[in-house]
Amino acid sequence: MCGRYAATKDPATLVKEFDAADDIGDHQPTPDHNVAPTRKVMAVLARHPKDADGEADQAAPAERLLRVMRWGLIPFWAKDAAIGNRMINTRAETAASKPAFRSALKRHRCLLPADGWFEWRRGPAKGQKQPFFMTTTDGSSLAFAGIWETWRDPKADSDAPKIVSCSVLTTDAVGSITDVHDRMPLLMPREQWSRWLDPDLEDVMEMLEPPPLSMVDSLELRPVSDKVNNVRNNGPELLERVEPAADLDDPALFDPQALDSR
After folding, report:
1. DSSP string, 232-246
2. CA dist., res. 126 & res. 198, Å (int)
3. Rounded to whole angstroms, how far apart are CA atoms 43 and 141?
4. What 8-state DSSP symbol labels residue 93?
5. How far is CA 166 from CA 29, 114, 137, 157, in A?
6. How far apart are CA 225 and CA 257, in angstroms?
């Protein structure tokens, strides 16, 4: 968890919602109803503007920017980009101590705007799973807490383009989400966005706790079609409510603690 999510809003909408400047350029992703690892996603970060020498001007206020990143963190010291394929998620509980994540947690934090995320609840029969889409009821975006890094292939020419990649922080599920899965994205409340993105703040340990129960219980846990299981399927129908079969509609039949991490 989180292995799939939906991000369908255009940059203009996200710029307004997150009070950010559009820094996407020509790399705008298309609306994605089934975001999968390694795809390009939009992220919000804050950076100090650069001075005439191309260095960050620490005296100038940080600017909140909307940029495009690759989902799957590639640590700056990695020898191969393939390592990012399995680093789409970062456990909030251990991010500060793991070599792949601790530097980014201190200096490179971001928010990943999402319409919602998908999770699968295991049923009583072998191989039986019911997908759910966790989303807001008012159409506002969720903000996943994330970290990012810049990487350059050490085997490539010095002028080869860098890859900016990111990872979603995850935490123990709380509230109604526990009926579906034991993990969830670390949802960042709006009142903490500025502090989380602050490039001058290194210690954010107090913000790595699971989100408030009230925030989680206000979400809709919507059963959806198993078409979402296939990454090639990508359309608004994936977000539509599809009532599960009667034997898949009783949470008592499920064991979220035994779920595979997706």
Report:
1. T--SGGGGS--PPPG
2. 46
3. 12
4. T
5. 15, 14, 27, 23
6. 23
56, two tokens? 């960050």
How confident is the model over 176-226, as pLDDT tens digits?
999 999 999 999 999 999 999 999 999 999 999 999 999 999 999 999 999
Q: According to DSSP H, which parts of the chain are helical?
A: 11-17, 102-107, 193-197, 213-217
The answer, as to whether pTM is greater than 0.85, is: yes
CATH number for the 5-258 domain, one of 3.90.76.10, 3.30.230.10, 3.90.1680.10, 3.50.30.60? 3.90.1680.10
Look at the chain and count its residues: 262
| Distance from C-alpha of 64 to C-alpha of 17, rounded to nearest angstrom | 12
Q: Which helix (H) or strand (E) holds 41?
A: strand 40-47
